[in-house]
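Journal club prep — side note

Before the paper discussion, L.F. wants everyone to see what a predicted structure for a comparable chain looks like in token form. Sequence:
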Amino acid sequence: MYALVEILGKQYKAEKDSVLKIDNVDAENGSVLEFDSVLLLNNDGKVKVGTPYVKGVKISTTVEDHRKDKKVTIIKFKRRKGYRRKQGHRQNFTYVRVNEIAGV
């Protein structure tokens, strides 16, 4: 069984005991988050598609860790002008573990 869930404007495939890497969420490690914006639910071949969301289905997750992604380097350069800029960025993200898909 799996579900397609929308979290902070992005879509993820959630299965029981899977770990999702989502955008940074302001929550403590070990706290429980619930998401009710389920777009699709597949329960052993029985597919329910929401319009836009499937009613009565929630995804329960636990926050595991907060980290930073790999560095992305941005370089701006204009030839023959002496113009060079180098900038780096590391995006914050959160690991969440799917506990259950409720309301099946």
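L.F.'s comment for the group: The mean pLDDT is 95. Keep this in mind when we get to the figures.
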